[in-house]
Design a protein that fits this description.
Growth Hormone, Chain: A, mainly alpha, Sugar/inositol_transpt, single chain
C-alpha cells in the first residue's frame, strides 16, 4: 500500500489520483508505524526490547531527514515533487522484501490457538520454530521454555473477565487514556507537526528568499 501510494502520487495525471495516492501512502505509513512497535514488543527479548523500539523511532526521524535532503535535491527541478515521491519507492521495495522473511509473532500464533483458531500442539510447534528464527543461536530448550511461559500467560489472561469498552473510563485505564490523549493533543496543538511539514515555506517567510536556501535550512532542522 505504501509503495502503491508512492507510485500513484509520482505519476498522477490529475488531482484526484494524487489524493488517492496520498491516502494510500498515509494508510500504509500508519499501519507500519503501529504494527512495527507491536511486533517488536511481542518478539524481542526483554533485555533489548526498549532499545529496538527506540531505534524504530530513530529511523522515523532519519527518514524525515532523508526527506528534507531529497526535497533539497529536487526543489528546483520541474515537477520535482514527483521525483521526491518516487524516491521512496526503492525503500518500500526493500521494506516489503524484508517483511516477507519475518517470522510470525509466536505470541500471536499462540493467542490464536488459545482462542480456538487452530490446533494447539501444531501451533505450539510453529511458534517454537518462529521463536528459534528470532532468537538465532538460542538453545531449543530455552526456546521451548519461553513458548511455555507465553502459553501460561495467555491462559491466565483468558481466564480473566472480558473487559468492556466502558472500563477505559475507569481507574487506571482512565489515567492511561488521559496521559496518552494528552500527549497527542499537546503535540498537535503546539504546531510541531506543522513546522516539520511546512518547514521550507516557514523559512522562506522568515527571510530565506530562495526555495533552495529554505530547503537547505530544513535539513538542519531535520538534524536537530
Amino acid at each position: 500500500m505504501y509503495l502503491i501510494g508512492a507510485l500513484l502520487t509520482a505519476v498522477t495525471p490529475n488531482f484526484l489520483i494524487m489524493v488517492v495516492g496520498r491516502f494510500l501512502y498515509g494508510i500504509g505509513i500508519g499501519l507500519a508505524m503501529h504494527a512495527a512497535p507491536m511486533y517488536i514488543a511481542e518478539t524481542a527479548p526483554s533485555q533489548i526490547r526498549g532499545m529496538l523500539i527506540s531505534l524504530k523511532e530513530f529511523f522515523i526521524v532519519l527518514g524525515m531527514l532523508l526527506g528534507y535532503i531529497v526535497g533539497n535535491l529536487f526543489v528546483e527541478v520541474i515537477s520535482g515533487w514527483r521525483y521526491m515521491y518516487a524516491a521512496s519507492a526503492p525503500i518500500c521495495v526493500i521494506m516489503g522484501i524484508g517483511m516477507c522473511w519475518l517470522p510470525c509473532s509466536p505470541r500471536w500464533l499462540l493467542l490464536c490457538a488459545t482462542q480456538g483458531k487452530g490446533d494447539l500442539r501444531e501451533t505450539k510447534e510453529n511458534a517454537t520454530r518462529c521463536l528459534c528464527r528470532l532468537r538465532g543461536q538460542a538453545s531449543p530448550d530455552l526456546v521451548s521454555e519461553q513458548v511455555n511461559l507465553i502459553l501460561e500467560e495467555l491462559s491466565y489472561v483468558g481466564e480473566e473477565k472480558k473487559a468492556g469498552f466502558s472500563e477505559i473510563f475507569q481507574g487506571k485505564c482512565l489515567k492511561a487514556m488521559i496521559i496518552g490523549c494528552g500527549l497527542v493533543f499537546f503535540q498537535q496543538v503546539t504546531g510541531q507537526p506543522s513546522v516539520l511539514y511546512y518547514a521550507a515555506t516557514i523559512f522562506q517567510s522568515a527571510g530565506f528568499s530562495g526555495a533552495s536556501d529554505a530547503t537547505r535550512v530544513s535539513i538542519l532542522l531535520g538534524l536537530l
